[in-house]
Specification:
This protein has a 5-stranded antiparallel sheet. It has 2 helices and 5 strands. A hairpin with a 2-residue loop joins strand 1 and strand 2. The chain is 18% helix and 29% strand.
């Protein structure tokens, strides 16, 4: 099971929201991901750990932005290995004890 999240990211001197995944997926979906060490969001924040982000389909040298949600869901559905797990996603997103509020859905 993989968790897909939206996180803030400093890109080209402006803040954007990108898609991340909790671990590197196997198969073709893994080719659409890249492990990066994100820059600090501010001088007051601590150093960030490596994250696994999705590469943009529209601009392959950039990261996939929130505006590309349809592209992300298409990418997941085209890879027959994975599918969005709607029942589990709903259960977890409604769970008040969930610690990571940036998760938007789960794939399995």
């Amino acid at each position: 099971m993989y968790a897909i999240s939206v996180v803030p990211f400093l890109q080209d001197s402006k803040y954007v929201k990108i898609f991340t995944i909790n671990k590197m997926p196997e198969g073709p979906l893994g080719n659409s991901c890249i492990r990066i060490n994100p820059p600090k969001l501010s001088t007051f924040s601590e150093d960030s750990n490596c994250i696994i982000a999705f590469k943009s389909i529209i601009y392959p040298t950039k990261l996939m932005l929130l505006e590309e949600l349809t592209d992300l869901t298409n990418l997941i559905s085209l890879d027959a290995t994975y599918a969005i797990n709607y029942p589990f996603s709903t259960l977890m997103l409604e769970n008040k004890a969930q610690q990571n509020k940036n998760i938007i859905f789960y794939i399995s």
